[in-house]
Amino acid sequence: MPLDFATLFPNGVDHYLLGGILIGLATALIYRGTGIAAGASTFLESTLSYVSDRPRFQQFRFVQSRDWRLVFTVGIVLGGFAYTALSADPWFVTDVSPTRLFVGGVLVGVGTRVGKGCTSGHGICGVGSLADASFVNVATFVLVAAGTAQLLFAMGVRP
């Protein structure tokens, strides 16, 4: 059965469009203000630079960006909590088991390291700056995600 636009987006696309515009503006603002692409994948290293003397965590790029990266990441988390507190219909409720969520999180973390960045960093900042590696990574993310979803669906695995 072919999917049409109304089936894919039953609530319309206005809120997606607005969200995309706001993300793009925020990304541009961070880049113009700091000269650094906004991404969350270096949060761990930059945060560990506060407490670890290991040379890996004391690299200039981690120490120099740790304050705003900490605020950026805490803001993402607090934004989610604020939405949940203010929303009459919290959307993060799931029937997925905690074990599957944990394994999925670990796989995302491994993929972030292997791909040299997170999906938001490559998809928003990397593609936005026309970086070849980001185009390759985003295409890989999409193909692997679609393939995994199809494989799991064929195996009868449901959330």
UniProtKB/TrEMBL annotation:
> Where does the chain cross the membrane?
15-31, 68-86, 138-157
Q: How does it sit in the membrane?
A: Multi-pass membrane protein
Task: For this UniProt record, give its keywords in alphabetical order, as a comma-separated list.
Answer: Cell inner membrane, Cell membrane, Membrane, Transmembrane, Transmembrane helix, Transport
One Pfam family, short name please? Answer: Sulf_transp
Would the keyword Membrane be found if you checked this record's keyword annotation? yes
Q: Quote the subcellular location field of this record.
A: Cell inner membrane
- Decide whether keyword Membrane is in the record: yes
Any single GO CC term annotated in Swiss-Prot or TrEMBL for this entry:
plasma membrane
Protein name, UniProt field? Putative membrane protein YedE/YeeE
